[in-house]
Structure formats: structure tokens, C-alpha cells
Amino acid sequence: MLRGAGAVLRRAASGQSPGQASGAGSPPPLEPWLLRSLVCPLSKRPLRYEAATNELINDELGIAYPIIDGIPTMIPEAARSTQKRPPAEVPEQP
User: Fold this and answer.
1) Confidence (pLDDT) at 85
2) Are 49 and 66 in contact, with CB atoms under 8 Å apart?
3) 34-51 burial, b if ≥16 CB within 10 A, otherwise e?
């Protein structure tokens, strides 16, 4: 078992998230040791935590994995694209 996993599991069983204060509206930050352990399932590269959107970002592939109820959802089909798509080209009219 990963070091620190027991404490995380006990907090999860009690319904308390790490760093959670009573009445806190924003999601708690991701545990640093957990972030160091997680990699993108597609590229096997490290991920960046974005607190504003509560997602794990793969800048290389331009995708973001959501963190739902404190649990990283590392399913490629659940990821969203973070790259802005260029507008569709309009053919020139003669």
C-alpha cells in the first residue's frame, strides 16, 4: 500500500476530504504525494494539478482529467480537451 494511503482511506470512509474545513465550498487540494504518483494513462507522463478547475492536466496532449469527489478520474474517455481549436476555415468567394 502507498505510504499515507491508510489516512486517505480513513478520511474517505468518514466522508472528510484532506484539508477539508467544515463549510468549505472549494474542493481540497490534491495530496502532493498522490500527484507525484499519478501519470497520464495515455502518455505515461506526469500531470499538473489545476486548482481553479480541479483537474489534472496533461499539457503535452492538451487534455484534462476531472477530479470528482476528491478522486482523480483517469479514464481517457472522461478527459476533456484543453486546446483551443482554430475556427473553421471559410472558403473564399470569387
Assistant:
1) 62
2) no
3) beeeeebeeeeeebebee
